[in-house]
Amino acid sequence: MKKKLVDIARDLNLSPSTISKIVNNKGRIGEETRQRVLEYVKENGYIAMSNARILSSKKSWTIGVIYSDISLIGFEHPFFSRVFQSFKDYVAKNGYDVVMIVNKLGSNELTYLEWCEIKKVDGLLIVMGNINNPNIIEVVNSTYPCISTDIVMPNLHTVICDDEQGVRLAIEHGVNLGFSKIMMVTGPLTARTFYIRTVFFEEIMKQMNIPFSKENILTTDGFGFSSGFATGVEIAKRQNKPELIIVNSDVIAFGVIRGLNSQGLSVPEDISVIGYDDIDFSKNFTPSLTTIQQDTKLIGERAAEELLRSISNNQPKKQIITYLPVNLIKRDSTKRKF
Predict the structure, then answer these.
(1) Regarding the domain delimited by 62-161+296-324, which CATH topology (the fold level of the hierarchy) does it fall under?
(2) How far is Cα 31 from Cα 138, in angstroms, rounded to an integer?
(3) Contact 146/152 with Cβ under 8 angstroms?
(4) Is the peptide bond before 268 cis (omega within 30 degrees of 0)?
(5) Of 67, 81, 63, 82, which Cα lies nearest the Cα of 16?
(6) Would you say the C-alpha torsion 5, 11, 16, 22 has a positive or negative sign?
(7) pLDDT tens-place string over residues 250-308
(8) 59-93 as b/e, with b when 16 or more CB fall inside 10 Å?
(9) Quick check: do 3-57 and 163-294 share a fold?
(10) What fold is seen in the domain 3-57?
(11) Which of 169, 179, 235, 278 is the most buried (most CB within 10 A)?
(12) What pLDDT digit, counting tens, does each position of 120-141 carry?
């Protein structure tokens, strides 16, 4: 039986638009991919979808991706890049292309909603964003199905890890190692994850009757290694040093450790450090980093699954938060107190 375009896309793990360009001899497609598709079509046959069928389906097989980068760290950040890649792989297996939704088309300023209308997307992934951004508010409140792996707001389905569980695991690990002088280093509180983890840190420390003060929470001026390094130097110069530092990002934790090292302190011999995310480099850093693992593959896949379900079922919008579990990964940056 001859195959339809969407069948070929699914079988070859390519997008319908790629298949369409190849069979219609349009666009720039790699020769290897082109030959693979043509050989498949020759062997199995192909039934072209009529324009009327495409129009009646009301689907473009395209998903828009919004990355409103308030942190200025970009997609090169290993956590967000891995979530996005997982999402992209999942939707591609289901026949969808992804397209970046930006604020400009040439010299023309466009809202996210206007971009969606031009690209005729079927749904949207908001990888990262600001809940006060008018463009994000507008598109979330529009008829386009939306999913986010970062922000939480009305009319939006969000897939995120359980930050309360993560912070609790880190504190409990410190207590089990015999520590009572526990500090948190967090990134800028404009980011939802850093803010909420800091709130949970204060709440859980109080619940567990562990003495702490506001001086036990330090906020870096940025999201990267250099900001962590400066904070590590600051901690090292304190008269009353912590026994354990919980850092809300692996990348910042790397900087904190090197900042401590620059002042003659050793991790974990003098101070133990726990990171957050479990990015790939965490196991290769010296010392290897004890950290809270967020499953980026699961986050991306679950977000993709929920968005495709919303697209197919035309579900009414409401605020939904799907929490995914985290794990404590024990490595060499923490050590039991003697």
Answers:
(1) Rossmann fold (3.40.50)
(2) 41
(3) no
(4) yes
(5) 63
(6) negative
(7) 999 999 999 999 999 999 999 999 999 999 999 999 999 999 999 999 999 999 999 99
(8) bbbbbbbbbbebbebeeebbbbebbbebbbebbbe
(9) no
(10) 434 Repressor (Amino-terminal Domain) (1.10.260)
(11) 278
(12) 899 999 988 888 889 999 999 9
Answer whether 251's CB lies under 8 Å from 279's CB: yes
> What are the two backbone dihedrals, phi and then psi, of residue 316, each rounded to the nearest 5 degrees?
-65, 150
Distances in Å between the alpha carbon of 51 and those of 48, 58, 278? 9, 11, 47
pTM to 2 decimal places: 0.81
Q: Structural domain boundaries of the chain?
A: 3-57, 62-161+296-324, 163-294
End-to-end CA, the chain? 72
For the record, the structure tokens of 327 come out as: 């794990």
Q: Which of 44, 64, 51 is nearest to 20 (CA)?
A: 51
The DSSP 8-state label assigned to residue 7 in this structure reads H
* Location of structure tokens 């790397």: 254
Q: How far apart, in Å, are the Cα atoms of 210 and each of 46, 60, 201, 214, 332?
A: 68, 55, 11, 13, 24
Tokens at 61, concatenated = 């097989």
Instruction: Work out the widest C-alpha separation in the chain, in whole angstroms.
Output: 77
Q: Angle 31-44/5-12 helices, nearest 10 degrees?
A: 120
